């Protein structure tokens, strides 16, 4: 399919998403996927057409068409997020405040491609492991880190704005459908991962004694993982600790190692896990470790 034909077809698709019947916009979304799979290169060239239609969102009269439009943007977000991140991010945050839950859920799922774009650029895949990043990748890292932290802050400000919608609930899955819940779900997607944890570590100076202790623990953990032939790695441990919800997560850490019920080895493992728990960052502590929080308290 030539570029002109693709251009015309994409515009027809957006028209169907915006004003079509339920059957028409279902077929439109199927067509997008077919175009992507059959003519990927031309699709990428024509994808910026979607940016023209973002400004037309407010003219869509029916919520079901608004939801179809937001859902239909998914492959365009996949294609465009690296180079048009701010435009797509601003649109997503706007639509996440839509009064209709179906519309909010559609754009929240589409916004997952923003996370994919950010994580791929902040922590690019290199092969073989340890290969030096190109200068372009290094520049993209700097840009993506700022975009990542700015997006999280923007979502947090919006969460504060809508905070009274679920003032008596503690967990996201207990919330009733609301703008606040939609924002919380996106925020959780962005912050419950190792990439965001690394950004926080890079943006915050760590006291030297804690830094050195953490490095020592990391080395000991890596050795223990090898000795026990664990299926997990150091990042798995850090991620579990970072996203801990209660003390039962300590049991999950123990299960990452196979000590074959040797009491001495089990005691060593428990001591090392306790050190990791105390010196590695926890999300619920604002990205700090218990050791850092204790130091903060002592310095007041």
Poorly predicted runs: none
- Quick one: biggest sheet? none
Strand content: under 5%
Order of helical and strand elements? HHHHHHHHHHHHHHHHH
Query: Which value, in Å, is the CA radius of gyration?
Result: 23 Å
The number of strands is 0
Helix content: 55-70%
Mean pLDDT: 90
Content-based structural category: mainly alpha
Tally of domains: 3
The rounded distance between the terminal residues' Cα atoms is 67 Å
Number of helices: 17
Approximate shape:
elongated
Which descriptors apply to this entry?
single chain; 300 residues; mainly alpha; 3 domains; 17 helices; elongated
Description:
There is one protein chain. The protein has 300 residues and is mainly alpha-helical. It has three domains: 1-80; 83-203, no CATH class; 207-298, no CATH class. Helix content is 69%, strand content 0%. The chain has helices at 3-19, 22-38, 40-46, 49-54, 63-72, 74-80, 85-95, 101-110, 112-122, 135-161, 179-191, 194-203, 208-227, 234-242, 249-254, 263-279, 290-298. α1 (3-19) packs across α3 and α2 runs parallel beside α5. The chain is elongated, with a radius of gyration of 23 Å. The model has no long low-confidence stretch (mean pLDDT 90).
Give a summary of the structure in a few sentences:
α1 packs antiparallel against α5, α8 (101-110) packs parallel to α11 and α9 (112-122) packs antiparallel against α10. The chain has 300 residues and is mainly alpha-helical.
């Amino acid at each position: 399919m030539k570029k002109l034909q693709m251009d015309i077809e994409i515009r027809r698709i957006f028209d169907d998403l915006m004003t079509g019947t339920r059957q028409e916009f279902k077929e439109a979304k199927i067509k997008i996927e077919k175009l992507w799979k059959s003519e990927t290169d031309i699709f990428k060239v024509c994808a910026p057409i979607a940016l023209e239609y973002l400004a037309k969102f407010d003219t869509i009269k029916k919520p079901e068409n608004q939801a179809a439009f937001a859902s239909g943007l998914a492959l365009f977000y996949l294609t465009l997020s690296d180079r048009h991140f701010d435009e797509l991010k601003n649109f997503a945050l706007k639509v996440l405040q839509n009064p209709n839950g179906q519309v909010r859920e559609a754009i929240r799922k589409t916004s997952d491609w923003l996370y994919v774009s950010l994580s791929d650029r902040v922590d690019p895949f290199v092969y073989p492991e340890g290969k030096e990043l190109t200068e372009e990748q290094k520049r993209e890292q700097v840009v993506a880190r700022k975009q990542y932290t700015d997006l999280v802050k923007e979502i947090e400000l919006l969460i504060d704005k809508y905070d009274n919608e679920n003032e008596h609930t503690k967990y996201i899955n207990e919330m009733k459908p609301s703008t606040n819940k939609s924002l919380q779900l996106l925020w959780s997607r962005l912050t419950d991962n190792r990439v965001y944890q690394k950004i926080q570590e890079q943006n915050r100076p760590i006291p030297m004694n804690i830094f050195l202790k953490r490095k020592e623990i990391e080395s000991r953990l890596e050795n223990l993982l090898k000795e026990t032939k664990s299926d997990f790695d150091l990042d798995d441990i850090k991620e579990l600790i970072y996203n801990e919800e209660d003390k039962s997560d300590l049991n999950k850490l123990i299960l990452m190692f196979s000590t074959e019920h040797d009491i001495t080895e089990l005691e060593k493992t428990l001591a090392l896990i306790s050190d990791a728990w105390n010196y590695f960052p926890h999300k619920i502590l604002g990205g700090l470790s218990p050791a850092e929080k204790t130091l903060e308290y002592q310095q007041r």
